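USER: Fancy drafting a protein?

ASSISTANT:
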Amino acid sequence: MQTCLKCGKEADVAESATAECPACGAIYLKVAQALASKQQERAAAAEKAQVQAQANSAREAQRAAYAEEGKRAEQVRRDGDPSRGLTCSACGQADAAVGRVKGTLGLELGLWISGLVLSLFVIGLLMSIGNSNALFGQPAR
């Protein structure tokens, strides 16, 4: 008694390589080989999909780690390292809890005025060099 793997009918058939199902005409050996081949293909495809899914999840985990590292670096750049406490945004000194430095307005004004005077001096010097012919008795044309 043999059951056809294609149609499911049971029949009294001799065991041979060319035994056919009397209901559908399928050769038992060929149908069994084809089903075994399809099962192997499905198993291989499932294994390949599983490997691909693992690789994808590993890449996603790596991307997430890089993104988190980038966010932390951006936060450290913007706010300073939180493990160091307060950080000065101008000089980067840690634990510099001084809110305001006194006396900087006068220094700023002094630098601006000295820069202005220096630039006017340079301009005057250049103009006097350009008019040096007039200084030595030759009239300007």
